[in-house]
Automatic annotation (TrEMBL):
Belongs to the cyclic nucleotide phosphodiesterase class-III family. InterPro entries: Calcineurin-like_PHP, CNP_phosphodiesterase-III, Metallo-depent_PP-like. Keywords: Hydrolase, Iron, Metal-binding. This is Metallophosphoesterase. Coiled coil: none annotated. The keyword Metal-binding applies. Residues 5-226 form the Calcineurin-like phosphoesterase domain. It comes from Bradyrhizobium denitrificans. The lineage of its organism: Bacteria, Pseudomonadati, Pseudomonadota, Alphaproteobacteria, Hyphomicrobiales.
Length: 296
């Protein structure tokens, strides 16, 4: 049987940024906007993002995961643009998107992501009221489990938090599917380990402890805009935890150029096999395979 393929991209930080209204530029947004107009607009480019997504489409993945930071300052005017962009990536039954800290940049618009993208993360089971996290979507052999670590934070901060209610619900969800033969993929914007206190997932320890008890097969995240693979403890084996660069970024400083990963997942005897292919934008603005790694 052919492998099931899951593509992972993250942190599109959609450009160009719509002009903020003056009233929107208070507090944290004022600092962020200054940083954008001085630096960030040079590094996050729409043409790079479009190049990456059109290459992704040529690979025809079965599913696509987008792990947050679709927008920059959670301005009201950014969300319709992000909705239009995500539609070009694929329809909601094929694309799963979760929020990042930039999608909940300030308190006033912290719920806009959930309102705008419920169709892209809502679980399979019909539920009353708005879609919530964690959510579960079954696609082929996959159980795609979405978390939200997106919370507003103070100036110069980019921390994330899951909260005890979401963690308890995740534990219950993992227990409820434990008897099924599923390749469980956990989607979360923040990495599980971070050297930078200002950017960390504040309750990562609790999530790591929960995963040591229940396990998943693969964890995908964004946020730090670099290639990264770390392994955390599961009940029986280590769990690969993989991050990707920003999908719109040119290489700058220690940040690599935009890239995405494709995971080919299949069943081999009584265990899972998972191969990762990394495709990245090069200096000539072409997207090329740069690496293949067997994860499981
Ligand atoms: Fe980001
Ligand atoms: Fe982020």
């Amino acid at each position: 049987m052919a492998a099931f393929t899951l593509a992972h991209l993250s942190d599109p930080h959609l450009a160009p940024l719509p002009r903020p209204r003056l009233a929107e530029l208070a507090g944290k947004r004022a600092l962020g906007y200054l940083n954008w107009t001085r630096n960030r607009y040079k590094y996050h480019r729409r043409d790079i993002l479009d190049l990456l997504v059109s290459d992704l489409h040529t690979q025809m993945p079965d599913q696509i995961a987008v792990t947050g930071d679709l927008v920059n300052f959670a301005l009201e005017s950014e969300f319709p643009l992000a909705q239009a962009w995500l539609k070009t990536v694929g329809p909601p039954d094929k694309v799963t998107a979760i929020p990042g800290n930039h999608d909940a940049y300030v308190r006033s618009t912290r719920l806009r992501f959930a309102e705008s993208f419920a169709a892209y993360f809502g679980g399979d089971a019909p539920q009353e009221g708005p879609a919530t996290f964690p959510s579960l979507r079954r696609r082929g052999p996959l159980a795609l489990i979405s978390l939200s670590s997106a919370v507003p934070s103070g100036p110069f901060m980019a921390t994330g938090r899951l909260g005890s209610a979401q963690l308890a619900a995740l534990e219950q969800l993992l227990q409820s599917i434990a008897h099924e033969q599923l390749f469980r993929v956990l989607l979360v914007h923040h990495p599980l380990r971070s050297a930078n206190r200002m950017k960390r997932l504040t309750d990562a320890k609790d999530l790591i402890a929960l995963l040591a008890r229940h396990g998943v097969e693969l964890i995908l995240h964004g946020h730090d805009h670099v290639h990264s693979t770390i392994w955390i403890d599961g009940p029986e084996r280590k769990i690969p935890t993989v991050g990707v660069p920003s999908a719109s970024s040119i290489a700058h400083g220690h940040y690599p150029a935009a890239a995405y990963n494709i995971f080919a997942i299949s069943r081999a005897g009584n265990h899972w096999r998972c191969d990762m292919t990394v495709r990245s934008v090069n200096d000539a603005l072409r997207v090329r395979e740069i690496r293949q790694v067997r994860l499981l």
